[in-house]
Structure formats: C-alpha cells, structure tokens
Task: structure prediction
Amino acid sequence: MQCYGKTKQNKQRYRCNRCFKTFIWRKPYNRHYRQRHWFKLWVKESYSLRQLCNLSGYSHSKLKRIKNYWLAIQPKEKFDYTQYKYLIYDGTYFHKDGCLINLMNAIDQKIIAHTYTDKEGLKSTYPWFLKLKEQGLEPQYISMDGEKSVIRAIKAVWPKIKIQRCLWHIQREGMRWLRTYPKTKAGRDLRYLLTTLCRVKSDKERKAFVKQYQQWLTEHKKFVMSLPSSTIAFKDIKKAVTLIKNALADMFYYLKDRNVHSTTNALESFHSRLKADYQRHRGLTEQHKIQYLSWYCYFKNH
Result:
C-alpha cells in the first residue's frame, strides 16, 4: 500500500501494491465524534436546531439525526469512588414527573453519581447508595437538606457518616414557619436568631448562637406552652423549635473541617441552571429527557 494522490475532497488516496486498486480510509466513528460538538452545544448551551443549522451548515433533519444518535447512547464516565470523602446531596423535581438526584464531590464540585426516579425517598435512594458503596464509595461527610427518609437511607448504608445539615434550608424553613411578621415577641426573637445562622463562621460565633438559642428557650418556653395548642402561633413556633432542636447537633461540622460545605448551594445552583436549559428543550420524550439529563451532568464535569 502506498500513497496515491488525493481525491477532489482533498482526502488522501491509497493504492494496493498487489491489485493496484485505489481506495481511501473511512472511519464512521470519527465523523460521529466530530458531530458531537453540535450535540454538546444543543445540550449544555441550549442552542436550538435552527441556530445550529446556521452555525454548522447541516440541515435541520441532519442535526435531528445527530441529536437522536447521541441521545440513544448512555454517557460513560469512570470514577474512583474510594477517593471521595466529602459529598453534597440534593434532588430536584421536574413538574412532579420525576426527580433527578445528584451526588457532588464537595472539593472540585463534580457530579460523581446521579439517578432519575419517580420520587425522592427511602425506596429510591437506599438501593442506589448500596450500589455506590459496593463500588467503593465511603464518604466521611455529606451536606444535605433535612429529608428524613433519605437520612435514614444514608445512615443505613454508612452508619459512621456525619451529615452536615444545610444551614440555608434550616433558615428558610424556620423563617417560613414563623411567617414574615410574627405576632408574638417569642416569634420575632426566634426569627431574628434564625437570620444570623448562615453568618456563623467561627467556633466563637457558634457558641454565641447556641447560647442565644438557650436563652430564648429559658425566656419564652413558659409563654409558648401557655398558648392554646390550636392557635397558629403555637403551631408555628413549635415547628420552628423542633426543626432547630433536631438539626442543632449536625449544624456546625464545617467549622471543624474546611472541606465540608455548610450549605447545598453549589448543587442547588447547578440544578437551577439545568432546569433553565432544559426548559428550552421541553417536549422531549421521557427516555430522551432522562438521557438529556445524563449528558448534561456528563458535560458539566468536562
């Protein structure tokens, strides 16, 4: 075999030394990987097929075939799960049609695992966590919201793990129970205390927050218990106090280790961008939607 000039398309031509026939090499998979660039723009940058037609020179039907070709393939990415010790967990719903659950590495903020399920809960997360443990995932800390069923699943799979409760979720949920303008002094004082939670950056500030909370209990406990149990004020304050009481032991792990995130904001912001980009492609089939979300997480890491 030897080189034998080029074709009209400027491709290298070869000639066989035995039969003297000329030919060119064709590698279809190379063409697919070159075309993946346009698929990536469609997924990650939310370009429409009309915009891609102008950029690539391909027809609308050609770009649709490219899109469907890659949506039929599951993105593959290998992770060494033994090295991940700090995680962020969060799930997000898509119009109640399903829930995307992600695990993010807290250090480099890469999505290391994701699953799409009907509902976020014990039945959906426990088998998923168990599978990740079999692959070598043994985290020390995980930052997450207060979803009780998911916490039970995590504790069942990794009994020694420490769960950092998201401070922003605690603050938002507590202030929601206390309303914007509480009618009682106890409610106003507790709401003001919650506004300082996300500003705790040192052990000294942690002690000050706990001390103020204990002082609030000493000052207002009798008044709260004297309220009729049927009143809205009693129910709201009780729910806010129960929230703080249950989360207090797991609020401040981030002060001992800088790799622990005090909130799930890193993953929440990723989900907000994902939803905004997905809305531009609404109308996908259920299978294509799941594949789109998988590719979006894949391209986020690259």
